[in-house]
Specification:
By secondary structure, the protein is mainly α. It contains eleven helices and five strands; from the N terminus they run H-H-H-E-E-H-H-E-H-E-E-H-H-H-H-H. It has a domain at about 30-55 and about 80-220 and about 230-235. The strands form two sheets. The chain has a three-stranded antiparallel beta sheet. The longest helix has 28 residues, at about 1-30. It is globular.
Amino acid sequence: MKKILIQARKLMIKLIMLSFCLLLSLSVTADNLFIELVDGKNVTDKNVADALKQLREHKEIKLKKNLSVNPFHHKKETENKLKQPFCQNCHLEKPHQVNQRNRSFLNMHTNYISCETCHLKDEGMKLKYKWLAYGYPNAGQVIDVYSSVHTEAEKVKVSILPRPGARIIPINNDQRMLVFKDEKFSREVENKWKTFSIEDKARLKANLHKPLNKKGLSCDKCHSENQKVLDFKLLGANEKQSHSITSNKIAQFFSRYKKDTDRLKMSDLLR
């Protein structure tokens, strides 16, 4: 009888430890909803086939370094003091390349908007958009725009845009919907990429992109009076700044004109 009780006690301890480990693994997974979306997606054969085609056709882009135009300009290498997003494991810091018409305008957005803000599939999630610090010492922390050093009178003059080292990101249930390069998930993906066959890489690529739309939001989703994506007040903008963003002439141009022969005139900016 004593031996049975000892064995039962040992079994109970094992069950408790197993339950603890399962709970721990679930809590780690739940730390980032974006990772859950990646892990929980069953990609189709077409998704994998498209990814495999892209990998086989991919041509590496070699960036020219230490560009100089004597004696006027010299581009120096600067130390990157910002946290880098997971996307930059594969994509360039300025990722938009294909459309020569608007790529400079889109790449300019990467200075203050995360990739996920434009490319994450909504899928019924209640997303909010807030500033997240990419720069140290507060990297990875949501910025509370209401706890500002400015007085209420000064806030009328302070712009929403100059937030060096910060990006507007999507948030769901207080969880940031993005991953940084220095996080465990990102390092695991990087290691897999080094060892996987091209077929396995294709499936991994398809999984990683499944929660994302290849084509980002159109300009008028944020730059129009009836936009419903961004809460500019929550982002710290006053009424004048909100109107300036929603009535941006360049964004309106890209929304109206689709042909390569269409041109943006100076008079369009002055209207």
